[in-house]
Amino acid sequence: MRFAFTEEQDALRAGMRRFLRDKSPEPEVRRLMASDDGYDPAVWKQLADQLGLQSLIIPEQFGGSGYSYVELMIVLEEMGNALLCAPYYSTIALATNALLTSGDRAAQADYLPSIASGDTIATLAWVEDDGTWNLTDTRLSAGHEDGVWTLRGHKSFVLDGTVADLLLVVGQAEAGLSLFAVEQDAPGLVRHGLTTLDQTRKQARIEFVDTPARLIGFAGRAHAGLSKTLDLAVVALAAEQVGGAQRCLDSSVSYAKTRFQFGRPIGSFQAIKHRCADMQVEVEAARSAAYYAGWSAAEDAADLAVAASVAKSCCSDAFAAAAAETIQIHGGIGFTWEHPAHLYLRRAKSAELMFGDSPYHRELLAARLGI
Torsion angle of alpha carbons 345, 346, 348, 349, nearest 10°? Predict the structure, then answer.
């Protein structure tokens, strides 16, 4: 396998870096993470109108650009590097993938064009209060009477759940696991913002009290599509983690070159050299795992599920280790609220748990390999 980006993909990365350098500097990240909505609507609109990012992986027939998952990986890696505060991951990596894997052409035609244009923020409501990502543990119930579906129950840890215009909800119908669409103004829908470790990514607990919903696909047949959605979401998250880990490495190396102690830069000391070298090895290994998983997603390869679990476990470990080492290398200042190191540590620990931590995915990998 040889990884080589095209000139167009390199240009996409360069454009993303310029945009994020201007729109997501540290002061803006801190301002948005302290706000209720957690994103800037003007920047969200620019992502759609100027860069066309919301339409990136949406097929052209639904108003999208029809690019592959490789382009999405590039975008998310740069967003993770800059800690962009925006509902992009929830809208594209979760909701859009859930619609694309559902096989429901009518729902795709109804919802994807407005997502592609940036007019709709969407998310996937999957997990409940126990925090498990196992589909079989879904307890939210879906009833069907007089031609109307209604949902009763709750979902928790819903990414951007307080600002989403469209909620795709996983529920248990009489026929089995099913996927439903709920509009933001649906009766019986109650949203509560959660206080979380990573303040740059908002989460919510959502209650459904006989809330009317639209069935996506067929009742009882959502398991296969949602399983693939989870794998695709894991791959997308791995790209974010690589971007964050790279930022930690870059900031540590830069600080080690400019921080002097005993008349010499601390990067000249063997202990600091070893720490930076270990970080470099882990980040590059994580990048290789993420890129391969991104290729598998782009090609819809048979080993996507295996590649996803490898990427999630590897990238989670690398990002968490890099963020922790960054604080250590920066010394006393690295522990302060004013320094950005803790923002990356918080994102690293939150992303580590999302969709299952490293031990969970190693166990899942063993099952997928038949070990």
Answer: 110
Residue 249 lies in a domain: yes
Q: How far apart are CA 166 and CA 149, in angstroms?
A: 16
pLDDT in tens, 209-231: 999 999 999 999 999 999 999 99
pLDDT band at 141 (very low <50, low <70, confident <90, very high): very high
Classified as helix, coil or strand, 172 is strand
Residues 218 and 228 in one domain: no
Which is it for strands 122-125 and 166-173: parallel, antiparallel or unpaired?
parallel
Q: Are 84 and 127 in contact (CB under 8 A)?
A: no
The amino acid occupying position 260 is F
C-alpha torsion 245→49→235→193, nearest 10:
80
CATH number at residue 253: 1.20.140.10
- Structure tokens, 246: 């790279």
Tens of pLDDT, residues 325-351: 999 998 888 889 899 999 999 999 999
